[in-house]
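During the no-cost extension, the postdoctoral fellow (Dr. R.K.) reprocessed legacy sequence entries with the updated structure-token encoder. One reprocessed record is reproduced below for audit purposes.
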Amino acid sequence: MSYSSLKDSVAELLGRDPRKPAPDEVSPEVKAIHQDKRADKSRIAKIRVELAEKAANKPPEKLRRKRWAVLIAVNLLFVLSYWLDIQLLEGALTASRFAGFHMADLNSALQVMLAFKHVVINLVIGTVTVFVLWWLLGGRTFCSWVCPYHLLAEWAEMLHLWLAKKKIVKDHPMDRRMRTVAWLVFALLALLTGYTVYETISPTGILSRALIYGPGVALIWVGLLLAFEVFYSRRAWCRYLCPIGLTYGLVGATSPFKVRYHLSSCFHEGECRKVCLVPHVLDTVILGRARGLEVDIGADCTRCGRCVDACPTSSLTFHFPGSGKAGE
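Re-encoded structure tokens follow.
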């Protein structure tokens, strides 16, 4: 990824809207492909054929099933380790120890260090371990593959979409810059108050602790968040507010593991953007927006794989250097 692309990726993660590429950022070869696609009178007919085929033979979301299985398994391992006292995975998602290795959620560790104005050696060890793991996996992989709130929010989103189809509710998009503001506010509160304020309202931490140690009154807050997402703003917490997502997005911005877009095979029918949690990261699939023949999707991508499953022409794939198209 070039410096310019990385800068744009981080800017979009922080809340800036995707920008159209300047003419000098697009190679003549890519410009020619854009022009050919605009001039192709049969493209719309091809799109209709592809969508009709997909509607008649709806493909299973294999990656979504795998992701849900991984997410449930990880959280279940915490629960079983505690209740069976096997000490394999101790603690919760915010801070844990796996087979003796300390692991700490990066956002939680930062909150603790800011609150106590002290660098705890176990936290340093735990954050380095987790940092390397999530840097390798890239983007906001933690969100879609591990976070228990993400799973509940996906189910809430399914209900929201059903209600929207019935015209009972309507989505109200919010300003994505709110997440950056929230990150700064909670960091400042930890520094000034000496208390990890965010941890008291983090649905990720609340759900993780509730699963392991039993439910508490804080689950009311999680229920209110889910209700807000069902009836007012689709995936509001994950899209517009969660500081954890911002932290992991910054960590994974330079990861070698990517979702990669292949311009030449794309029909630009937009199926990928319909299912994406953060559709602004797929702005490049809009006809005329791609800067190259192959474009790596940005840091705000959760690596959930829904776009990979949804694309009827396999124009979006997982990619790791030297591995070819990992999504094929």
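The chain has a mean pLDDT of 90. Residues 68-251 form one domain. The remaining legacy entries will be reprocessed before the final report is submitted.
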